[in-house]
Amino acid sequence: RITAKRALNDLAEEGLVVRERGRGTRVTWRSVTPPLKANVEGMLENIMAMGLETEVSLLAFDYVSPSDEVMSALGCGAEDKVQRAVRVRHLENEPFSYLVTWVPEDVGRSYSRDDLASTPLLSLLERSGVEVTRAEQTLTATAADAEVASLLEVELTAPLLRIRRIVYDQLDC
Prior knowledge:
With 173 residues, the chain is α+β, with helices and mostly antiparallel strands.
């Protein structure tokens, strides 16, 4: 009992569990450390180069209603449609990146499913008249779920880096 109590106290100190008298101990689901936010100005060229040097498999491509998170990021409403695409990037036939992208419908309609399967998204955005001026990204740790683990050929719950990137145009939207 003493060892178990010490272990639970250590977990509570690390923010992984919450201990409440009379209610017990429960696991916390929030991140222990805040996500790291980084500005990627100057890195857009590197992202574009990566897109040109890798191969992509397009797994899904559709126009859907946005979630609250997507509405907030894109500044759109619940009545709007957005393009949702799911891709896996490969380098030398090895999968290394699982991407889910959301693009406003009016921009997404300027290119096709085949275009997205063969051309980096940043190139397609530029071709459609979007002048990418900056991007913000948030980096967090996550665990591979069953779908992502299978697609990336890693073990279930393998540690992964999650990057959430919002790209802004010349109108800052």
